[in-house]
Every structure is written in C-alpha cells, then in structure tokens.
Amino acid sequence: MRDFIAVHKTGLRLLKKIYALDRSIIPIRLLEICFSLLGVYGSLFWTAALVDGLLGADFKRAPLLIGGLLVWNLLFGAAGCIIRQKFYGQENRLWLSFYVWLREKAFSLDYETMEKPEVSEKILFSERTSDMYGGLGSLLNHYCELLRAVLDVLFSVCLVFYLCVTTPKAAAGILGLLARPLPSLLLFAAMLAGMMLSSFLVFHRYAARQQQLFDSQTGVENRLSYLLSQIFGNPDAGKIIRLYDMKEMLLKNADHCSKQSGEFYRSMGRLQRSEGDAYKAVNSLFTICSYLLVTVKTVTGAITVGAFTRYVGALNQFGNACFSFLFRHGELRKIASTMEQFLSFLELENAHATGTIPVEKRADGEYELSFEHVSFRYPGTDALILKDVSCKISVRQKLAVVGKNGAGKTTFIKLLCRLYEPTEGRITLNGVDIRKYDEEEYRSLFGVVFQDFKLFSLPIGENITAGYERQEELLQKSLEQADALSLVQGLPAGLDTLLHNDWGDGVELSGGEAQKIALARALYKDAPVVVLDEPTAALDPKAEAAVYAHFDQMVEGRTSIYISHRMSSCRFCDDIIVFDEGKIVERGSHEQLLSAKGHYTQMWEAQAKYYVETQPA
Fold first, then answer.
1. Burial of 12 per CB tally in 10 Å (0-12, 13-18, 19+)
2. Fewer Cβ atoms within 10 A, N terminus or C terminus of the chain?
3. What is the pLDDT of residues 551-600, one digit of tens each?
4. 304 contact partners, CB below 8 Å, separation of at least 6
5. How far apart are the first and last CA of the chain?
6. 377 close to 423: Cβ distance less than 8 angstroms
C-alpha cells in the first residue's frame, strides 16, 4: 500500500505539471473515455435486445435494432476517433515540453550547481528513461487508461450485481440453488477475490524483478550513451581515435556495452512476456468461471439468451478492466519511479544567494572590484584552490594574471564573474558584496573569453551578438578589433554563415579562427570589464602579434584582465598579479617584478631561455 501511495503521489505531481501546461488535454481525454465506454456498454444493450428479438421472431423490430446498433457504434466510434487524433498532437507537445522544462531549469541554475556530477546524471537519467518508458504523454495515457479501467469495473460490476440478484424461474436442483441471488453473489465475490489476489501476486512478483533488472542496467546505459554521443558522435574525437589507433578498443567497449544492453532488453522482454502469460492465465480462469455463472443464470431462466450476451460482455469487460488496471499501475510505477529524478531536478535550488540590488549603470565606467580574504574550495573537495586572496582591481586598468598551471588563475576569474561563490571572505563591487547584486545585472559587466570557449551551431552573426540586439556598427567594430573582419568577409554567406554541420551545410573554423570569433563576441558585449583567458593560445605568431598591436584599441575605456602563460604578453599590461599555489605571491609592473627577482623573474627567465635555445641556427 505504501508503494501504491508513493507511485500515485509522484504521478499526481506530474499530472499537475501537465495540467498547468495545457488545461484542455486532461478534459479531452476524459471526454474520449466517456464516449468509448458509452459505445461499449450501449452496444451490449443493443446486441442483447437484437438477439432476443430474433429469437422471438420479432423481425419487424430487428432492422430498427440493427440500424440503432450501427448508428450507435458509428456515432461514438467516430467521436472517440476525432478526440484521439487531437490528443496525439497534444501528446507530442508534452514530449517536447519535457525536454524544454529540463533545459529551462538547467539555464536557471547557477554554474556551480550545474557542474555537480549528480546534477548532470539527473538530466541524463531523466532523458534516457523518458525515451525508454515514455515521458509525460505516456504517463497521462496510462492514467487515463487506469481511470477507464476503474469506470469499466464499476459499470460491469453494476451489471453483474443485477445479474446475481435475478431470481431463477426453475429453481430445482443444484443449478437452481446456485442461481439464487445470495449464492450467486457469493460465487461472484469468490471469483473476484481469487482473481484480484492472483493478479496482485503476479504483479508483485514481476514488478520486483523488473525493478531489479532496471537498476542493474543504469551504469551500462550511461557508458553506452557516453560512447555514442560523446565519442562516436564527436568529430573532434575522430582525430585522437585515428592517431592513436583507438578504433578497435572503442568498438570493443561499445560492443561489450551493446551486448549487455541487448541482454537486458531480452531479459526484460522475456519477463514481460512471462508476466503477460500469467495475467492471461488468471484472466482466462476468471472468464471460464464467469461463463459458467451466466450459463447457470440462463439455463435456470433468470435471464434471457439476449441478456446472456450482455452479461458475458460485461464480465469480459470486467476481467479485461482488472487486467488493464494492474498493467497500467505497473507501467505507472516504472514511469513514476524514473520521473522522480526529473522532479527532484526541477526542485533543485541554486547554491548561490539571490541578490536583488541593481548594478549602478555608470557612463564613466568607474567600477572597483575587490577580493577580501577570499578562499575557495570546489564542492565535495577538501583542498583549497584559493587561499586568503586579497586584491583590488582598479578602473580602466590592464591587469595580467600569471602563474603555473593549477595556481588558481582561472578559479580567480570564475569567482570574479560569480560563477562560483567564495568559501570564505567576500568579493565587492564599489564596496558592496557582489552576492547582493542581481546576478544577471552583475554579469552584464563582464565580457569573457575563456580558454575552453564554445561556439554554437548557429550563424556566425548570432554567435557574436549572442543574447543582445544586433547592431551592425558595433558588430563591424568588434570584428575589426578581433582581427576577424577579413575572415568573416571571406566566408560564403558572411555573418549568416552557419558554423558546424549539426543543422546543415556549415563551415568548420580552425582553432585560431574560432578564437577570433570568440574574442569578437566578448568585445561586442561592450562590457566595462573584459577578461581574456589565454586569448592568443590558438593563434599563430603573426596573428598573435596583430592582437597585441590592437590590444590597447580593444580594451580602450575598459578594465581588462588578461590571463596568460606567455610572459611576453605581460608587457602590454599596467599591473601584474602572480599566483602560486592558490595565493598571490607578487604584484607590480613588469619592471618592478623583474627587479624583485622572485617568482615572476623565474618564469620570465625560464621562458626567455627556452625561446633563445629554440631559435633556428
């Protein structure tokens, strides 16, 4: 009973979401059920009257009964068909809405929450199980069929109850005794109890085995999904696969997962066939007993031969409805248990505090950012990535952030952009904790190019303008500053050229070309703070020199933060922060840091030595 309540508690929560999306879909399905049941039970009465009329040689009335039966079936059959067609369109909308809700929720969550592996797993699990067992449309369909089964049981029980209380005309002998109301009711109650108990035992046995099978399969499906989507469907992975001769190894892994997956579906199929056979056996036994009961009533004169067809039909409906009820509940149990992950994902709350203060829009760009004793560790880890970091970033300053790999440079930027929040300490904008600001407004201050930037399968123009209104003059200026104007002009459709081949015949840019487009996107945002994380990493020396030549022009009037492993780029910056093991160990201008003979000097001399040693003879 607890399991039953839990299943339908989840189901009702999902039905509320369906109703909120489309208030007509549930009433339409209920209307279809009413038409269907009226068609079935009306046909039973018309058929019974027709049989009695033919047996009584009432041939004048027979054509009217036949016509009435045909019109009844045509009327309710056509109405049900029209309604079902409308529902199928709504069901497709539900299927799409499920994926839209997932993405909308994902976009609403902060970056820190979305980076958690368990959150990604909830999304993948929800999508996979929706494809396997049917999503919201299937859930609604099963609930409607469950309701149909309940109504079917009620209607048929009313008819069978009336059958049981009919009094036989020939009451002699054992048949006459069994045909009396009380024995008939007791017989029907025993048949009903036996069928329900047997069906429950079948359901309980197979539901547990199916759940056990499904739980054992989750890991295999995750691995297979990863291989198919992230490796076999990833063009970038193709280079590594070919260079390192990984084809056989990957195909072997995929084949192993595929065999395990195939065995799962074969086992599930065998289990479902076995379950279906068990239900059929129970239903067949109930049907035989039902026929015997109706036969006894007919033989003893309690009902007519025409009524025999009506009550047999009603008992058949009853048995099928009971089977349908248990089957639909089993299907709902599977869907509801898998949809729990979907609901728990929708209920996730942001790890970040939600600020409400609007950011002051300053035409003079006078913004001061400050780290005050900031320490940070990634969720679920113990090691501090940043340790007691304190610094100020002044307006219109060109700041370089340098340090060895893992020193905390990129984490420093992620905290600054409020993708994460400090474990200790605080970050302020003009003296106010950034957590108090509206998150979107605060992020509008930053135009960022991360080293692992992403361009989308959209026209280049949309990749650059992103979520902002297209302004041709600003677009042209951003492309010129990023040294990408000639690149775009040389493409088949200019700014309307599609990137990648996901949606059609697009173009693939080189790493350096793509980095220029990403740089143009950051400049187009026209934010007061520009953050460049290794902005020339994929550029050739000539293109890199061009970027440096336009560096002052690019960041004109803006505060710029430049992260790089190439120490030569620091010459273009007014101020340099040196990170080491999560701490700021030095700060100053290029000349000041060289004269200090510290970490910066060591890195500078190491790179200078490398460049000298590798010069061609």
1. exposed
2. C
3. 667 777 788 888 877 776 777 788 999 999 999 999 999 899 999 999 99
4. 48, 52, 55, 298
5. 84
6. yes
